[in-house]
């Protein structure tokens, strides 16, 4: 297994049905994929817990440096996703723009999501930061991208 620098994994967002673009100034992004496990225990389980595989869900949590510049900053972009009730196309994908990605086949996740929450923090004498959470709407799709 080849280790990969997390900086090479990008979180991309698009609200207009075009090609998703990297959400600027992020410092981390976390893709969460979950499945409910409803209890299926019965007297036949002989005292052992049992379950079935239930509904699947996914979300992305993102943190970054807050950019308050109007129309080019991530603060306005994230705020507008909630204020305008936008559903967005998202990608969680390896990036090879600088040519640093090792050769191989990589997984790319795509889906449609809603921005569930956004927080902007402006501490005294500190870097202004942001955090946001996107909740998947429907299926999360895995595909592959290959770098020769």
Describe the structure.
By secondary structure, the protein is mainly beta. It has one helix at residues 74-83; strands at residues 9-14, 21-22, 26-35, 56-65, 87-94, 104-121, 129-136, 141-147. The chain has 1 helix and 8 strands; from the N terminus they run E-E-E-E-H-E-E-E-E. Strands 1, 2, 3, 4, 5, 6, 7 and 8 form an 8-stranded antiparallel β-sheet that branches. A hairpin with a 6-residue loop joins strand 1 and strand 2. The longest helix has 10 residues, at 74-83. The protein is globular, with a radius of gyration of 19 Å. The relative contact order is 0.23. The model has no long low-confidence stretch (mean pLDDT 92).
Mean pLDDT, all residues:
92
Structural class, by secondary structure, is mainly beta
Fraction of residues in H or I helices: under 10%
Uncertain residue ranges: none
Helix/strand order, N-terminal first: EEEEHEEEE
Overall morphology: globular
Strand content: over 45%
Distance between the termini: 17 Å
Can you give me a brief rundown of this structure?
It is built from 1 helix and 8 strands, in the order E-E-E-E-H-E-E-E-E. The protein has 148 residues and is mainly beta.
Q: Which keywords apply here?
A:
148 residues; mainly beta; eight-stranded antiparallel beta sheet; 7% helix; 47% strand; globular
Furnish the topology, listing elements before pairings.
Layout: E1 9-14, E2 21-22, E3 26-35, E4 56-65, H1 74-83, E5 87-94, E6 104-121, E7 129-136, E8 141-147
Antiparallel strand pairs: 1-2, 1-5, 3-4, 4-7, 5-6, 6-7, 6-8
């Amino acid at each position: 297994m080849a280790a990969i620098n997390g900086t090479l994994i990008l979180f991309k967002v698009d609200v207009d049905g075009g090609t998703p673009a990297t959400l600027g100034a992020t410092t981390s992004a976390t893709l969460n994929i979950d499945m409910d496990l409803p209890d299926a225990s019965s007297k036949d389980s002989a005292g052992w817990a049992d379950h079935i595989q239930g509904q699947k869900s996914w979300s992305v949590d993102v943190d970054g440096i807050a950019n308050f510049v109007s129309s080019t900053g991530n603060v306005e972009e994230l705020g507008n996703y909630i204020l305008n009730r936008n559903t967005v196309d998202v990608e969680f994908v390896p990036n090879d723009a600088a040519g640093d990605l090792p050769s191989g086949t990589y997984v790319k996740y795509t889906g449609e999501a809603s921005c569930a929450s956004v927080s902007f923090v402006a501490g005294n004498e500190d870097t202004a930061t942001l955090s946001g959470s996107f909740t998947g709407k429907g299926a999360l799709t895995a595909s592959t991208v290959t770098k020769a």
